[in-house]
Amino acid sequence: MIDMKNILFISPKSEYYHPSLLGPPPLSGLLLLATILRDKGHYVRFIDEIIKTPDYNNIDDVDFVLISSMGSTVKRAYFLSKLFKNKGIKVVLGGIHVSFLPNEALNFCNQVVVGEAEEVIADVVEGKIKSKIVQGVRSDDLGKYPMPDYSLVEGIKKNPDVIGVTTSRGCPFECKFCSLSPFFGRKLRSVPTDKIINYLLQFKGIKKLHFHEANFTVDKKRAIELLKKMKENEIFPKKALSLQSIDVASNDKILKLMSEISDFYLLIGFESINQAALDFYNKKQTPEMIRKSIKKIHDYDIKIMGNFVFGSDTDDKSIFQKIVDFCSYSEIDIPGFDCLTPFIGTSLRKELEAQNRIFCNDWDFYDMQHAVFYPKKMSPLDLQEGLISAYEKFYSTRNIIYDLMRLKISQSVSTFYMKNYYKILIEKNDSYLDYLQGIPTRS
Ligand code: B12
Ligand code: SF4
After folding, report:
1. Centre of ligand 1 from the C-alpha of residue 23, in Å
2. How far is the CA of 2 from the centre of ligand 2 (A)?
3. Are 19 and 418 in contact (CB under 8 A)?
4. Closest CA to 394 of 335, 339, 338, 308
5. Measured between alpha carbons, how far is residue 157 from residues 36, 161, 209, 314 in Å?
6. Which residues form the pocket of ligand 1, taking CB atoms under 6 Å from any ligand atom?
């Protein structure tokens, strides 16, 4: 017989606007923890602040508050943490940011779980683990955990329009700026495909299915098996999105299956088309591989959300126009532009810290949309303005008209929507530009 606890889960929303916040699924890792505790007999509430934010002043009847964190949401997590701690309620923090900075987090909460929490979370809320910093466990057997139960999310539709599922963890690569391989490790660990299929059967014709892992197709055999079973079981989401490296393009079977199953969007970190920058990022790809992969993926009528990072030691002010031109002539469907960001836990951060090049440690701005360090060949203001100019140039009225003239209707519609999203992002960042004006140049 367990001592049943009332537990409130919160997936916090950052104060700043991000285009990716438009209609995304709740954080599946946090929801998985809620599902585990519910299955153990605890009473759980799950708030995703992107869906709804209740008046927390009216919430006193809980024993524990469990809050997640990534760089851009951690200040909100700390704010909520203090709010509940002041009411005498125990607060536990977890997630990628606090896992690398547990001592910072302990200024705001009672306990911090470092890393993956499935194995320890019940013992934490049941009081069997009392240490302030709790070490999580990287289990090889992901099949023993339940799948996240979306019905726990407050305010979500009975048949949600969008869900996220994490079918594997780990990525064998070591890109310099990435916190995922330090966090989940380089070894790939997967949920058994039958378990995923059983879960997805309840979402057969869902509007959007997101695969949330770092690298969906890194194990080609597994990806083929999963996609094949989706096809056999008629699991045909209207749109599907997955994150993976460009080697997906080397496998025709995967691309064919993807094109048969859904209107697939592949989010791929191209990062640059300049070999020196790719080498700086430790990205195991060449501009030639990037060009070929785009062509191949498009041959299967699959859409590409290509991400590019600005600010490598080899980038000067000419990089922004070069990347925008590349995106236009290679017809990347939805390019995303990022500032290189020294996230906690990355080798990039260690390198820039050693060179004393980080001037901003306000985590609100660790969202890949703000210049927070001194690039080598331009100023932080140049980097910020260059990022904005890339958005303005690619998502422009001129490009919308150009696509319409070539009868690329869906492309012009998505450019139109993205133009409006990014317009808001740019407007909201005016004060950051003012701040950067005042940053002294590096001697
Ligand atoms: C889904 C997702 C989103 C969704 C989030 C939906 C939501 N409702 O918040 C959307 C699309 C909105 C999104 C947006 C952004 N995201 Co995002 N996102 C992800 C993604 C792809 C999957 C998360 C996931 O499900 N992981 C799998 C689960 C199993 O892992 P987990 O969430 O970490 O949870 C485990 C542990 O961390 C721990 N845990 C987690 N929370 C808690 C809480 C407690 C109390 C405990 C005890 C334990 C615990 O236990 C879990 C199970 O083991 C990750 C990449 C990844 N693969 O993780 C990026 C990632 C988290 N995002 C990232 C970024 C940068 C962003 C954006 C800033 C991008 C942008 N420029 O727009 C925005 C910011 C949004 C914001 N809220 O401010 C970075 C964060 C880097 C960092 N170190 O901070 C990541 C790591 C991707 C990357 N580029 O490297 N994102
Ligand atoms: S391929 Fe993607 S997930 Fe893997 S280390 Fe590089 S950036 Fe991170």
Report:
1. 15
2. 41
3. yes
4. 335
5. 21, 8, 15, 47
6. 11, 13-14, 18, 20-21, 24, 26-30, 32-33, 48, 50, 66-68, 70-73, 92-97, 113, 116-118, 121, 164, 166, 178-180, 212-214, 343, 367-369
DSSP structural state of residue 375: -
* Fold (topology level) of 6-135: Rossmann fold (3.40.50)
Ligand 2-lining residues (CB < 6 angstroms):
171, 173-175, 178, 180-181, 214-215, 245, 269
Cα angle at 241 between 240 and 245, to 5 degrees? 140
Question: SS3 sequence, 407-418?
Answer: CCHHHHHHHHHH
Given a contact cutoff of 8 angstroms between Cβ atoms, the answer to whether 203 and 235 are in contact is: yes
Distance separating the N- and C-terminal Cα atoms of the chain: 65
Residues in the chain: 443
Fold classification of 161-306 (topology level): pyruvate-formate lyase- activating enzyme (3.80.30)
Exposed, middle or buried by CB within 10 Å (0-12, 13-18, 19+), for 361?
Answer: exposed
Nearest atom within ligand 2 for CA of residue 214? 3
Give the separation between CA 159 and CA 253, rounded to whole angstroms. 31
pLDDT one digit per residue (tens) for the chain, 443 residues: 678 999 999 999 987 766 665 567 778 899 999 999 999 999 999 999 999 999 999 999 999 999 999 999 999 999 999 999 999 999 999 999 999 999 999 999 999 999 999 999 999 999 999 999 999 999 999 999 999 999 999 999 989 999 999 999 999 999 999 999 999 999 999 999 999 999 999 999 899 999 999 999 999 999 999 999 999 999 999 999 999 999 999 999 999 999 999 999 999 999 999 999 999 999 999 999 999 999 999 999 999 999 999 999 999 999 999 999 999 989 899 999 999 999 999 999 999 999 999 999 999 999 999 999 999 999 999 999 999 999 999 998 888 888 888 878 877 887 888 887 777 777 777 889 999 999 877 76
The domains of the chain are located at 6-135, 161-306, 311-316+336-443
pTM: 0.95
- Going by their DSSP bridges, the two strands 189-190 and 168-169 should be labelled as antiparallel
By CB atoms closer than 10 A (0-12, 13-18, 19+), residue 105 is: buried
